[in-house]
Each structure stands twice: as structure tokens, then as C-alpha cells.
Amino acid sequence: MENGFLFQAIIYLSAAVVCVPLAKKIGMGSVLGYLLAGIIIGPYLFGFIGEEGEDIMHFAEFGVVMMLFLIGLELEPAKLWKMRQMITRVGLSQVLITTLVFFGILYFMGTGWRQSLAISTSLALSSTAITLQSLKEKDQMNSSAGRNSFAVLLMQDIAVIPILAVLPLIALAATSDVDIDHMSPIAQFPGWLQTLLVFGAVILVVVSGRYIIIPMLRLIAKTRLRELFVGGALLVVLGIAFLMELVGLSPALGTFLGGVILANSQFKHELESDLEPFKGLLLGLFFIAVGASINFGLIGENALMVFAATLSILLVKSLILFGIGKMNKISTDQNLIFAFGLSQVGEFAFVTFSFATELNILNSKTTEILMAVTALSMTFTPLLLLFNERLLLPYIGTKKKEEKPHDEMEESNKVILAGFSHYGSTVGRFLRANGINATILDSDSDRVNLLRKMGFEVYYGDVTRVDLLEMAGARDAKILISAIRNPETNYHLVTMVKKHFPNLELMVRAQDRMEAFELMELKVPHIYMQNLESAVRMGKDVLIKMGFRAHTVHRLAQDFIKYDEDSLVELAKVKNDKKAFISTVRKAIEMQENLLSFELNRRFSLNDHAWDSETIKEGEEETK
Amino acid sequence: MRNILVLMAHPKLEHSKVISGLMASINGLENVHITDLYECYPDFNIDVQHEQEMLFGADIIVWMHPLYWYSAPPLLQQWIDLVLEYNWAYGHKGIYLKGKYLFNAVSTGGSPEAYSAKGHHGYQLKEFLLPYKQTARLCNMNYLPPFQIAGTHNITSEKLNLQINDFKALIIHLRDSPNLSDLENLPFLNDFKQ
Fold this sequence. Notes:
Largest sheet of chain B: 6 strands, parallel
Helix content of chain A: over 70%
CATH architecture of the largest domain in chain A: Up-down Bundle
Order of helices and strands of chain B: EHEHHEHEHHEEH
Largest interface: A-B, 14 and 11 residues
Largest sheet of chain A: 6 strands, parallel
Number of strands of chain B: 6
Strand order of the largest sheet of chain A: 3-2-1-4-5-6
Distance between the termini of chain A: 93 Å
CATH superfamily of chain B: Flavodoxin domain
CATH topology of chain B: Rossmann fold
Mean pLDDT of chain B: 93
Strand content of chain A: under 5%
Distance between the termini of chain B: 17 Å
Oligomer: heterodimer
Radius of gyration of chain B: 16 Å
Radius of gyration of chain A: 28 Å
CATH class of the largest domain in chain A: Mainly Alpha
Number of domains of chain B: 1
Shape of chain B: globular
């Protein structure tokens, strides 16, 4: 029974379904939830899954592979070029310094230089999945912590190429009786040829992206078979991954490269929406597998060593990161998020460690302990971030609220403005220009400090927390404006406000129609589509340039905006009939179609007869 | 009981004593509906159908506004342009306003004497309001004399309150009195006595 596929699938899925919502509920983030699920069903706790955990992990690594492909898709080469300074200044220095420090420590502890090099390079890498996921959940992607973390992760991704390329060379020097069968297919070639093949494969990916993959996708797209396109997308990812494994490179890196190549193609969004669910599920599986593969037996025997190693690695890595952050003038708050966020050993380490074992650089016991340390460090990261957010930052970082003499605090503002990005700041400035001071909530500490200097009343922290809103005077305020970009944060904020502060009138920015629908389901009375006015204004100017009279266009535009808002309500009524499984991007396209066909049937002309003598002339003709 | 629809147009009501006082005095009266035009249509984008429905349900229509440059504020003019459609309000099939009463309730900075042949403005108020009178006639409505609060720049609040009370009494009379034909011959509706 236990080996049945269905049984396995049920165990994994139910563990995830139970643990992830629980973890999110207590504010730990989904990664820790998945890890916990893995530990619970793993061989050392309930034992639902045994040794096959590692096979699953191998399979689930594809989640990481796909994630990198999707990250690559998001990254246009031009954007990468723009980030080059941050990538080298922050990213490169992190990889080099961390590697050097660990190498030094290990070497002086008496480890051989080969082992030291293999281990230290692996330890320098951080977990893309954990870091990005937690940054996203905390809405920190656009803060300086987010951007710097991203630069470091990118540099680490790039660093995997030389690391994996160099390992065989070290091994070659280490021993001659390598067990060739268990190594990558090119391992029987001499070192220089291997290195050459590695670079050849990378070049092949770059070239084939343009000349094979895009024409192939175009061909598939013409068949208009959706499942075939999903198949094609999977084929691209699997193909690149296979090629990379063939030359012993990280498949994740190869697909990342493939993603970057395809980022400029017209299939970008299609690929994203098709692969997203696979990525999410496999990534979850990956974390469960990591949790399950933590060898508690081994940890038990070497408990002190494993924990000491994990903690010192976390400490050393975060200290180095903090130093780099300091050098690059990241503010303390952001720097702490940056340093703790990247302090774990990443999932690439699983790959590099096992590769190094195959190459006989490391023996299997060392590898097991290192893997345990890696998994443990990943488990600690969300806890560290939680510790940082709840216990550290409130004392040393930007305060949630400013310390002011009491009398100044007494008069609380009637309007609370959550999120002070471009959108929110425009709303806030307009209000302030007219003498209405809103209390501002924001989660970017740099911005909070700046605003406080400018004399705004600003509260810092997670806007979906009840206590922060309470502190900001939500009990006595009249209106809460949410100018937050992230739909998830918006959703949490709205549900929380509805529950705890029913007196507050909600006015909410919506990213797009899908979000507007969600907000409508929550019965938010005032929803503002963020691009509507600006887009119509642009269209107005185009019509004027095409020879329309400005005032006529102005009135047409007013009608159009009203029509668009009405049609949103109409579309919301029909949208629930659709199958829930179609992806959001797909839904948005479908909605666009609906809108366009509505508009064909409705002729946009002004249907009043103001200032129009034609109808009067016709009417007079008739009566004669 | 008649239905009264007050169409009030003031571009800066927050600075007005007279018009907001008039409004406040009749606000909430039974069968009296006030449309604050500048509040409803700040972008001049008038909902024609809604306005026509409101008109159709009313027996007495009041255009309440300050007199600027011998005319109404532009939004009221926009309202007239858009709402009083051909073949709805006037023209061969335009029968929907027939028999309703209409008058202007205006505030003027100038004194009553300024609005005379020898006064500062050279003509009587009703002469300046001629376009409105003829608009009413074209729509087959009965145009009543204007209600005027004059000299608003230096009016005392006692005097203003008296006139506001007169206005309220007038509105109630218009709403409840069985016969309104005697009002048409008054020079001003201010002269109406219960």
C-alpha cells in the first residue's frame, strides 16, 4: 500500500494542505509550512515516506528549475544590464567574500583545500526560492532590501556556472580512480574538454533560443491547441534542463538562461501563465522533500556539531551580508532584512554537494551532514526573519510610530493612507495640498524615514496587522485608502479592516479587473482601476490629434469611463460561470475579448442631441 | 399636494450665504426635492435621462441660482441645453413638460433699485430673465415671476432671514394651494402673501 502512487500523492498533498495554511496563519510564510509538512511526514517523525524522499527531491528540483525559467522570463537582458552595477558591487562581493571566509575557516580547521573549496563555494549560495518568496509575501520586492537581494541571487545564479565547471577540474587533481559510471556523461573526457563542452552547451542554449525555440513556439501557437502549447513550454524547459545535466551543469541555471533569451519574445506571458501552476506545485513538493530528507538520525548523533555549524554559517553569512549592505549604504532596517533573508544555504548546495560526492571530493558522511545543515539553515530562515521582524526591528530599526510629545499625537487624522508608492504619494500629495493630512502606513523603511523627515505622520510595518492600524488611529478615522499594489496584501487588508474596523470607509486601488472582481466580492464600495483615467486621457489626445474637436472628445471620454465602470459590474456577474481552473492571465484575455465585442455592438456616439440641429431639421420635415 | 423640484446651481456654495440659506430652509420638506447641480455634475456630464425623469415627476420647477453677468451659472445653461431635448421638452412631440410651473429664484448683488430703467443696471430683473421665460413658453410651461433676494453684498442677517422665511412660506404655498393662477400677475413672487 505504502508504495502506491496514489497513497504517496495523498500524503504529500494533505500534508501541504494542512501545514501551509497553518503556517501562514501564524505569519510564518508558505516555505516554512512546506518544510514543516515534510518534517512531519518524513521518516523521522511519522514515517509516511521513507527513503524515497530523495527521489522525490530529485523530481521536485524541477520546481526550482521552472522557477528560474520564470525568473529569467521576467528579466529582460536590458534590465539585467541596468542592474549590472548592483550585481557586481553587491552580488559579486557577497559570493567572493563569503567563499573566501568559509574557505579560510575550513582550511585552518584542517580540511583539505579541495574539500574546502567545494564546500565554501556551495555555502556561499543562498536559496532563491526561500528569499524571493518571503520578500514577495512581505511586499519588500521593490524596497532596497528586495532589489539588493535580487542582485545577489542573480549573481549567485551566474556563479553556479564557474563552480560546476571548476569542480571536475579539482576532482581530476584529487584522485585518478574516479567511479566514472556515476558521473555525468561527459566525465570521462579530460578536464579541458569538459570545460569546453560546458561553455559549448551554454552557447547552444543562447543560440537555439532564438533560432529553434521561438520558431517552434510560433508553429505550436498556430495550431491554437492550448494543451499543446503547455506541452511545448514544458518541452522547452525539460530540453534545456536535459542538455545542462548532460554536461553536468545546473539545469536551473540553463533554464534561467533560456528564460532570459525568451524574455523579449511575444510568448513571454503565455509561457508564464502556462508554467506557473507547475512551478508552484513542484516548488512546494521540493520544500516538502527537503523537510523530509533532513536526517534526524544523523543530526541526533552529531547534534551539537550540526547545530553549531548551522548557526555559525548563518551568523557568518549574515555578518558578511550586513557588512556589504553597510558598505553600499543600505539603511539598517533594510540591511537586516537583506542580511537575514540571504543567510541560509541555498538549494543549489544540494546539487553541488551531491555533484562533489560523485566526483569523490567529499565522502558521503560529510555530504549527509552538510545536507542536513543546509536543510536546517533553510528551515531557520523564516524563523530568523520572523525574529527580525517581531523582536529586532521594533527596537533597533525604524519605529512603527514616531516618538512624539503626547499632545501632538492627540488629534488623529480622519484619513489613513496605506502604501505610499507612486500611486499613493499622488493621492497623499493631492490631499495634503488641500489641507487634508492623511496618516500614512508603509512597509518600506527607507521611505518611512524620508516621509518622517518631511513631517508626515507615518506608521511603519505590515499594513495587514491589526495592531498597526489600531496604533494609526483606525478606530477614530473615517476613511481608509489602500494604494497598495500587491493584490494579496490588498485582499488581506480589506478582510482585516472589514472584520476589525467596520466603521472605516474603504477606498481601494485595483491593479486590474481580476483584482477589482475580488474586491467587489468583498463588497468594497469604492474601487479605483489604477490605469483607467490615464489611459482614457491618452486616447482623448489621440482622437484630438486625429481631428476630433476637443470638447466632443472630452464628453465621449466621460461616457467611456462611465461605461467601463458599468461594464465591470456586468462582467462581474458573468465571470463566476467560467471554469475556475483557467489561469488568471487567460481570464484577463477572455475578458478583453468580451469587452471588445460588447463595444462593437454599442456605438459610441453621444446620444443626446445637444447643440445638434440635424434632429430638429428632420423632425420639422416630418411634421410638415 | 404638488411635487416641487428645485434645481440649484451655485459653483461655490460653500461661500454662499443666501442660496445655502434658501436651500436649508426648504430642505427635507415633504414633496420637495432639491438637486444640487454642481455637486451632482462637477464634470458637467449631465445624466439626461435621469434629469428628464425627475422633471416628469414634478409639478413645479425652480431654477435657483445667483445672477452672474445677468445670467445663470454655466452648469444651469448646460442643463437646459442637454435636458430640454427636441421632441421631448418642445417640438411636435415634446409634450412632457406641458402645464408645469417654472420660476427663477435668484440672488443678486445689486439692490432692487439697481435693476430698473434708471438704476445701475438699466433694466428690470424680469427683462434679464426673458430667455428663461421664453424657454418655459416654448415647453408649454407656465412661467411665474421671479423670487429675488437683492443686495446680497451688504444684507443684514435679520433681513436675510425674513426673506428666507418668505421663501419657505412660498414653497409650501406652491405645494399645497389648490389655485396658483393669481401668482402670475405679481411683479415678484416675494410679494405673495398668504
